[in-house]
Amino acid sequence: MTTPPSIFPYLRYRDARAAIAWLQQAFGFRVALEVPGANGGIGHAELQLGNGMVMLGDQPNEMLGMQPAAAGGGGNSQGIYIVVANVDAVYASAVAAGARIVIALHDTDYGSRDFSCRDPEGQLWSIGSYQPPMLEG
After folding, report:
1. What is the pLDDT of residues 107-121, one digit of tens each?
2. Domain range enclosing 24
3. Is residue 3 a part of any domain in this protein?
4. Angle at which helices 87-96 and 16-27 cross, to 10°
5. Are 55 and 9 in contact (CB under 8 A)?
6. Rounded distance between C-alpha atoms, residue 19 and residue 14, angstroms
7. CATH no. for residue 93?
8. Does 23 fall in a domain?
9. Which pLDDT band, with edges at 50, 70 and 90, does 65 fall under?
10. 15 belongs to a structural domain
11. In angstroms, rounded to a whole number, what is the distance separating the alpha carbons of residues 68 and 122?
12. Rounded to an integer, what distance in angstroms lies between the CA atom of residue 113 and that of residue 130?
């Protein structure tokens, strides 16, 4: 039995419904849960990719103290790294979906194949083949 993850990145979007569609097209995420929010928006969604998951919802969420992403994608200090088997295929999907590439597809000196991009609302996503080792216990 695989141990489920214990850390889930949580993102806020101005248009979570559009973000979900883009993440499905660009990276192959699947919707595991979608909870309606105000005015036909998304209150909470869980998107799965392999054995990982991200959670997201519409902005704002004053209860959590979260603020909208900066227009144009500036000012954030976080990003999400996704491990995939075929980085080149995901790169092609991301480009086709309109990702803004910020680090071009390349091979690293530690044996990974990587690229980084921003989604339509400026969130930073890095995709690569590097699988970090997990500590026991």
Report:
1. 998 889 999 999 999
2. 10-61+79-128
3. no
4. 140
5. yes
6. 9
7. 3.10.180.10
8. yes
9. very low
10. yes
11. 11
12. 7
| Residue 19 falls inside a structural domain | yes
Which residues, including other chains, have CB under 8 Å from residue 98's CB and lie 6 or more apart?
22, 120
What's the pTM? Answer: 0.77
Integer Rg of the chain from CA = 15
DSSP the chain: -PPPPS---EEEESSHHHHHHHHHHHH--EEEEEEE-GGG-EEEEEEEETTEEEEEEESPBGGGTB-PPPGGG-S----EEEE-S-HHHHHHHHHHTT-EEEEEEEE-TTS-EEEEEE-TT--EEEEES--PPPPP-
Question: Distance from CA of residue 73 to its chain's centroid?
Answer: 14
Q: Around 85, how many Cα atoms within 13 Å sit in the side-chain half-sphere?
A: 4
Cα distance between residue 93 and residue 115, in whole Å: 12
For the chain, the domain total comes to 1
Look over the chain and give the mean of its residue pLDDT values, rounded to a whole number: 85
Alpha-carbon separation of residue 71 from 27, 98, 121 (angstroms)? 22, 17, 7
N- to C-terminal Cα distance for the chain?
15
